[in-house]
Recover the amino acids of this structure.
């Protein structure tokens, strides 16, 4: 190689490495933008009851045989959170201690709901030390509430009215359900819609759900 | 095979397996539970198999620097991963974590199969006989620069597939 070729070779390599570094940084920035614009609360995806409507009435047995009544007709002294899980879903496993601590703090009765193979549930319950009486296996429950994606949570008040619901993937999502109940908005979508309608009060609301 | 290309493949693959093994050691319980979710092994064997895989990845990473025969190990590991992923894709279980390492969960997809096939082709390249041309300083520079570029583009690719998932989730909610 002549000297000028050699120089060109080094310069080109430097540019190639530099260029790929720029590409990497760009993709990272696109990723960060996605995180910023993603909804910060739980997304309501269910085709079941809407927020504000009475929850469907379902009777289901817990693993220890206790009969649980769900829905508008059941008498209850506290609100109830139905946490739809599957022993196979990683996020459900990671999130269950968070859901337990948040429901305990808000004095809400927590019920796990799932369906499918019995063996899976047994090992899920024993690894995470969940009370068998709080774990309901019922296909009907999921169908009645129109659950399509997991982990999903439905918050029902004392009178059996659905107060908030959504797909939950993080602690913020779980907390957003209780925020939503306190603010009287059903889901992130509803919140975003109301924000568009009342863009003046944007600041106040943004602090509420963020 | 031209020694610069052969060595570039060996060093790049070695780095990849070393990082992958290191990430799995860091998040071992996560890797173990991901392997359980694949539902291919009896529960009792999962924890032994998980340890074996991590150790194998580490051994392959070191062996790649020592001998081109490590390409066999690369092909073997990738074949196991591809079969495990393909079986679960066929079962329609795309929601489980791939267990690829790293702190974030990554779902199974056909993209993983394509990625692993490309890596397997690189593994085959390692096995090809290298021509006897002696390596000089210039070659070492090129190998270093090429491995650096490949590493950067590899992480860019990973970020891109993560971005693509974010785009899909967003479209699903509109």
């Amino acid at each position: 190689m002549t000297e000028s070729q050699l120089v060109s070779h080094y310069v080109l390599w430097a540019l190639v490495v530099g260029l790929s570094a720029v590409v990497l940084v760009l993709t990272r920035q696109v990723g960060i933008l996605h995180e910023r614009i993603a909804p910060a609360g739980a997304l309501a995806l269910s085709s079941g009851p809407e927020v504000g409507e009475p929850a469907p009435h379902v009777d289901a047995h817990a693993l220890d045989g206790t009969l649980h009544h769900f829905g508008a007709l059941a008498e209850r002294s506290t609100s109830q959170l139905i946490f739809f899980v599957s022993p196979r879903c990683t996020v459900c496993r990671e999130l269950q201690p968070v859901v337990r601590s948040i429901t305990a703090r808000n004095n809400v009765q927590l019920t796990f709901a799932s369906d499918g193979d019995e063996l899976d549930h047994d090992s899920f319950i024993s690894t995470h030390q969940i009370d068998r009486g709080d774990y309901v296996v019922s296909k009907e429950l999921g169908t009645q509430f129109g659950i399509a994606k997991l982990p999903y949570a439905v918050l029902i008040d004392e009178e059996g009215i659905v107060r908030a619901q959504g797909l939950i993937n993080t602690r913020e999502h779980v907390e957003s359900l209780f925020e939503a109940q306190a603010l009287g908005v059903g889901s992130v979508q509803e919140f975003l819609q109301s924000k568009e309608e009342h863009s003046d009060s944007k600041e106040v609301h943004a602090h509420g759900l963020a | 095979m031209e020694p610069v290309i052969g060595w570039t493949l060996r060093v790049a693959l070695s780095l990849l397996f070393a990082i992958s093994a290191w990430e799995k050691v860091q998040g071992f319980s996560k890797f173990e539970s991901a392997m359980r979710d694949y539902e291919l092994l009896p529960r009792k064997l999962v924890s032994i198999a998980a340890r074996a895989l991590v150790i194998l990845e580490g051994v392959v990473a070191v062996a790649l620097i020592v001998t081109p025969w490590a390409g066999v190990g690369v092909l073997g590991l990738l074949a196991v991963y591809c079969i495990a992923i393909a079986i679960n894709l066929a079962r329609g279980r795309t929601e489980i974590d791939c267990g690829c390492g790293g702190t974030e969960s990554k779902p199974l997809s056909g993209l993983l199969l394509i990625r692993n096939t490309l890596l397997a082709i690189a593994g085959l390249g390692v096995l090809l006989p290298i021509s006897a041309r002696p390596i000089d300083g210039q070659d070492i520079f090129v190998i270093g620069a090429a491995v650096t570029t490949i590493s950067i583009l590899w992480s860019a690719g990973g970020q891109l597939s993560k971005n693509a998932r974010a785009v899909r989730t967003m479209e699903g909610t509109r």
The mean pLDDT of chain B is 90. Chain B is about 80% helix and 0% strand.
